[in-house]
Write a structure and sequence with these properties.
Structural class: alpha/beta
Distance between the termini: 41 Å
Number of helices: 12
CATH superfamily of the largest domain: HUPs
Shape: globular
Number of strands: 7
Order of helices and strands: HEHEHEHHEHHHHEEHHEH
CATH topology of the largest domain: Rossmann fold
Largest sheet: 4 strands, parallel
Strand order of the largest sheet: 3-2-1-4
CATH class of the largest domain: Alpha Beta
Mean pLDDT: 91
Length: 286
């Protein structure tokens, strides 16, 4: 990640496309801020173009968002002089979210963007913006349909910024989150059809914190209760299994109620629980 160095002239040109795209939102906006590199860059650029007084940064105060991300989102907003509004995070009370079908993200985002739209209307702001980038149309992304339903705009995608360019522009602007690993909400750790509740979301959050406290940044703890399946990049598997580290991981995850702790030998794959949706059905005689 740290070796990413696109030509400076191209980075500046990409930054200018984003700033120009944001000019269309002069009526002010609520920015969906998760604390990741995409939404952090969006807020940073929007504060420059629209002014902090024309913005609100909104973050879901939900068990599906790691507490560290909520704190980082608030700190970034404060550093820019933008008011930060934690939202209710009530998606765990939605039956379709708890049921955890393949459309789970649609119901979560529909609820979240609805709260943001209501907030914008109360504060007299014309727009709701999110950090969807130009890569995010790939794969299984039901949350995008929720954004369309709530008339949410995506300036990063409009400016043609893929994840590589989001990171490059964020680095150019000095954002600490420029190389922060992508980290989907904690609900994505649960296989489809596995009921999601608050207690289990918090178990996963604490389990992942065990690994982060040991220095692992890019990781997932998949919830196959009573099994915890750990995904880290393949080049980090040996570090995970090193004497002293392995025991601390096992002890930490057993303390969260997992009876068995497994390491995925395919390594970290973002969206790995979507893989069954992409597989062709078996045919007789195959």
């Amino acid at each position: 990640m740290s070796s990413l160095r696109p030509p400076p002239r191209d980075v500046i040109e990409a930054e200018q496309r984003l700033l120009q795209a944001l000019e269309a939102y002069a009526g002010g906006a609520v920015v969906a801020l998760s604390g990741g590199s995409d939404s952090s860059l969006l807020l940073h650029a929007a504060a420059e173009v629209l002014g902090p007084h024309n913005l609100l940064a909104a973050t879901s105060r939900s068990e599906s968002l790691p507490a560290e991300d909520l704190a980082e989102a608030g700190a970034l907003a404060a550093s820019l002089g933008v008011e930060h509004v934690p939202l209710s995070g009530g998606e765990v009370d939605i039956e379709a979210f708890r049921r955890n079908g393949p459309d789970r993200c649609f119901h979560c985002k529909l609820h979240l963007y609805g709260e943001m739209r209501e907030l914008a209307e109360r504060r007299g702001l014309a727009h709701v913006l999110d950090g969807t980038n130009a890569d995010d149309g790939e794969g299984h992304r039901p949350g995008l349909a929720a954004g369309e339903r709530r008339d949410v705009a995506s300036p990063l995608a409009e400016a043609g910024l893929s994840k590589v360019w989001v990171r490059a522009v964020a680095r150019h602007r000095g954002l600490a989150s420029w190389d922060k690993p992508a980290n989907a909400c904690l609900a994505s750790r649960f296989p489809y059809g596995t009921t999601i509740d608050r207690a289990d979301l918090l178990r996963v959050q604490r389990a992942e914190r065990v690994l982060r406290d040991l220095g692992f940044r890019d990781l997932r703890v998949r919830f196959h209760d009573p099994v915890a399946r750990i995904e880290v990049p393949l080049e980090q598997v040996s570090a995970l299994l090193a004497p002293g580290v392995r025991e601390r991981v096992v002890d930490g995850l057993r303390a969260e109620g997992f009876h068995w702790v497994a390491v995925d030998l395919e390594g970290l794959r973002h969206g790995s629980l979507d893989e069954p949706l992409r597989r062709e059905p078996a045919h007789d005689g195959a």
